[in-house]
Amino acid sequence: MARRDRHDIVIEILNKAKSGKRKTDLMKEVGLSFTQTKRYLTRLREKGLLELNEKNQLVTTEKGLDAVEKCSQCLLFPWKTHKKKLEI
What is the CATH number of the domain that holds 53? Predict the structure, then answer.
C-alpha cells in the first residue's frame, strides 16, 4: 500500500462511514492499527465530523460530508510543480 498522509486517511474514513460503520470495520477497511483508529476516530468525533447513531455505529455528519465535498473540489484544482534551481 502506498504511503498516505493524514488528509487521505481522514477523507477515507469519512467516505466509508457515510452509511454507518462499526469501529472495527473502519479499522479493517481503512487499514489502520487499533491505536491509529482510536486516535483518528476520537479526533473526528471531537471536531464534529463523525457521530454515533442509534445502532452504535459511526456515521459521517453533515459537517463531515461538507468537508469531504470541499476536499474533492480542491483535488480538481490543477497543481503544477515547479522545480527551480537555487541560484547563488
Answer: 1.10.10.10
The answer to whether position 1 is within a domain reads no
Domain count for the chain, please give it.
Answer: 1
Q: Which neighbouring-strand residues pair with 60?
A: 50
CA atoms within 13 A on the CB side of 4: 12
* pLDDT tens digit sequence for 63-80: 999 999 888 777 666 655
Q: Is residue 84 part of a domain?
A: no
45: confidence class by pLDDT, cuts 50, 70, 90: very high
Higher pLDDT, 30 or 74: 30
Residue 12 lies in a domain: yes
